[in-house]
Amino acid sequence: MSATHRFADAFLDEVRERTDLVEVVGQHVKLKKGGKDFVGLCPFHTEKSPSFTVSPVKQFYHCFGCGAHGNVFSFLTEYSGYDFVSAVQELALRAGLSMPERSAPTAHALAAEARTARIGDALQRAQRTYFRNLRNCPGAIGYMKGRGLTKATVVQFGLGYADDGHIHDWDGVAIDVLECAGLVAVDDETGVYHERFRRRLMFPIWNERSELIGFGGRVLDDRQPKYLNSPETEVFRKGEELYGLNFAKQSIRQGRLAVVVEGYMDVVMLHQHGDARAVASLGTSLTEEQLRRLYRMADHVVFCFDGDKAGRAAADRAARVAIGITPDGKTASFLTLPGDHDPDSFVREHGIDSWRAFVECEATPLSRKLIEMLLRGRDLEIAEHRAAFARDGIETLAVIGHAPIFRAALQSELERIAQMALSVPEVADARPNRRADAATHIRVQTQSDVGLLPASNRVAFYRRYALLLALDRDAGAEIPYQLLDDFSELVSGWFACAAIDHRARVEAAERIVDPALRAVVVEAIQSSRKRANMLVGDALAREVGALVQTISGELAQRARAEEAAALFR
Q1: Helix, strand, coil shares of the chain as percentages rounded to 5?
Q2: Fewer CB within 10 Å, N or C, the chain?
């Protein structure tokens, strides 16, 4: 089914009514009855005392620790990694409901769907063949035993071996399907097809939903290339996927930390040793999409690369990616293993507890990594070197478009090192504005004399409380409220206005796809607490009140000037 399929509200309501949220959540979280609700440890962050509640009557969950909130659909999408359509399909199947009929697909769509299914079947067949080949390849068995792989790990990760098989062994699978699946390639000179993977230890690659999408193969001798991956196909896009994420996502969400390592074997061995937070990029440099995917699950990402020249270069590239998309409230750091260690050898020598401590305590923060890169090969006692440091520092600051607080802190540190002021141009928000026609440019300024909280916390309170008050005022009427495009601790950002009937707010809020937005909207319209209780001290309350008044005035003026229909053109 198309990911863009739109379901009727009546169908979604029926699926929800026939689904026991407690049962669905209880498959992943140990819940205990507490009054009318059920309570347990939150699956979305690490905690020792349970703050996660599930309401069987209202059919929503809420964590008072991290603010996670949603219904049965959002639990499957945010915890189990389903997309929305797949979540609806899964729950409808459990409830014994037939999926609603879609409008007749086009001939092109039908052909693409059939081709994707054939590719998936070919990949599954290849994986079974590679796994069976292990029995007849003592070299592959010896290599895996030498690396310390257990039978359970081999089975879990589906490892196998591609021998010198020939095309005729693939009876029943059309050659064009094998080519579309990336399993065979054609010789440009002779036009003859040959198997892409030969005499290689095979690592199946699954996407986040555990769908087989490709392979990585490692030679057992000195042939080059050492690693060979599936080519880009209709189902496999290297820059969007992460090896091992289907196995790691639960641990990453629970600990809010992800570990990015270099190779497939690093991931496999770390999972075997007991660190299931490890993932790897797929034979390419880390991409923005891969890091964004991790930030949706984790607050902190640790990059662990080898200490050789290639590893250092990979770390530098990852740092350049991280500065462009890491928002305030998220962090990245870099870990270089001592000596000739890789993650496997480090854990073997020092143990898993030492590995975890090393990852969590010894990694270099992104800011220090950037400074180290800027200082490399420069003597700041020389004016020309100091000028080059300042110039490159300005260029670095200019690409930090999502973390103004971090940007200001880094600028201060670079100015201290360079012993000069750095004039950095204002950074435009680089994110695509999904509601460009409805964008309201409102700059939220904090007052420097409010010293009750650290600056980052004050910003969070300002924006959060401004939204809550805007939702509360004029209850019962059609009022504008703020849809934060990215709810994070930013001093300034883009706001989009929308009009919503107060009586339908709860139903509408439950269907908001963005989890951060949904959590704050639902809290605002369902919470019985006084909003003032969320503030710390009268001084901050007065500051927030003034801010809300300013924002409300700008919103009202814009609402009068634009028709509501134009907001969602």
Answers
A1: 50, 15, 35
A2: C
Residues 6+ apart with CB under 8 A from 17: none
3-state secondary structure 123-180: HHHHHHHHHHHHHHCHHHHHHHHHHCCCHHHHHHHCCEEECCCCHHHCCCCCHHHHHH
SS (H, E, C) 422-477: CCCCCCCCCCCCCCHHHEEEEECCCCCCCCCCCHHHHHHHHHHHHHHHHHHCCCCC
Distance CA 534, CA 474 (A): 20
Residue 243 CA neighbour count, 13 Å, CB half? 30
Question: Measured on CA atoms in the order 280, 283, 287, 292, is the torsion positive or negative?
Answer: negative
Q: Which amino acid is at 543?
A: E
Q: Which of 90-99, 221-230, 516-525, 526-535 bottoms out in mean pLDDT, i.e. has the lowest?
A: 526-535
b/e code 381-410 from CB counts within 10 Å (16+ = b): eeeeebeebbebbbebbeebbbbbbbbeeb
Distance of CA 96 to the CA centre of its chain: 32
Q: State the virtual CA torsion across 134, 135, 139, 141 in degrees, nearest 10.
A: 70
Torsion of CA 130, 135, 140, 143, to 10 degrees: 130
Whole-number mean pLDDT of the chain? 76
Please give the model's pTM, rounded to 2 decimal places. 0.64
- Flag whether pLDDT at 65 surpasses 80: no
Q: What angle do CA 251, 254, 258 make, to 5 degrees?
A: 55
Scanning 220-351, the segments in alpha helix (DSSP H) are 245-255, 264-273, 288-295, 309-325, 343-350
pLDDT at 5: 52
